């Protein structure tokens, strides 16, 4: 039998791996009745791991010579505290830990992209679950639903701190009176709502776009290895697969942590704006 009978085309392979495992099949572009279970699971899993990791390191922290893990976490804590000081003028007892948690959480979710693309598909096949879980995406931040959900959380925090700092009356007054005055309240309200929507989009699209592109490149590189294994191009494709995969993985390390850092910084900037008035 020819190799073509066994190997999916690049389009079929990529299309299969870019589908989420949800509560039902999504036919429409937007369908709020569908929940992507893989995104929810891995988001919660990475969040739990991040919290446990920081808790364990904090419990074992010593004032003597720290180990490498404690030193790394101390650097992250100092980074989060420094950035929060630059953006938030006031009580930062919640803000700095929030910034640290966001950075570690998103970094872990982004790092899921380094797992082999066919790892869980092969695992489900061995366990006899491939019929029940036909699709599975392991990178929550490569799913726009996941990044929009995180961004919505940031906007909710903006509302919370806006009300906490300015009071409900002050917050509503700013929502309807800024920037053109209370006599143009409908225009002010529309403008402020557009501003909040723009913040959601800017946070979500930036993180999703970078991680989606990274996942897509890993899939295409994986296909080089698959074709090489099936002798479609032979050793030339295998060498290309190894070289391209190594180079992109090294470069992607920078993207993974840079995007987590940018998301953290933008969150602090937006929360800082919530503490201030127009």
TrEMBL record:
Q: Where are the transmembrane segments?
A: 40-58, 94-115, 144-163, 175-197, 217-240, 247-273
Tell me which family the UniProt entry assigns to this protein. Answer: Belongs to the ATPase A chain family.
Entry keyword set: ATP synthesis, Cell membrane, CF(0), Hydrogen ion transport, Ion transport, Membrane, Transmembrane, Transmembrane helix, Transport
Q: Which NCBIfam families match?
A: ATP_synt_6_or_A, PRK05815.1-1
**Could you confirm whether the keyword Transit peptide appears in this record?**
no
Single annotated GO MF = proton-transporting ATP synthase activity, rotational mechanism
Query: What HAMAP family does the record point to?
Result: ATP_synth_a_bact (MF_01393)
Listed GO cellular component terms?
A: plasma membrane; proton-transporting ATP synthase complex
Q: What is this protein called?
A: ATP synthase subunit a
The record's section on CDD domains has:
ATP-synt_Fo_a_6 (cd00310)
Q: Which residues form a coiled coil?
A: none
The family database entries (PROSITE patterns) matched by this protein are listed as: ATPASE_A
Q: What does this protein do?
A: Key component of the proton channel; it plays a direct role in the translocation of protons across the membrane.
- Species, as recorded: Oxalobacter paraformigenes
Q: How does it sit in the membrane?
A: Multi-pass membrane protein
Q: SUPFAM superfamilies attached here?
A: F1F0 ATP synthase subunit A
Give the InterPro entries listed for this entry. ATP_syn_F0_a_bact/chloroplast (IPR045082), ATP_synth_F0_asu (IPR000568), ATP_synth_F0_asu_AS (IPR023011), F0_ATP_A_sf (IPR035908)
Subcellular location, in the record's words? Cell membrane; Membrane
A biological-process GO annotation? proton motive force-driven plasma membrane ATP synthesis
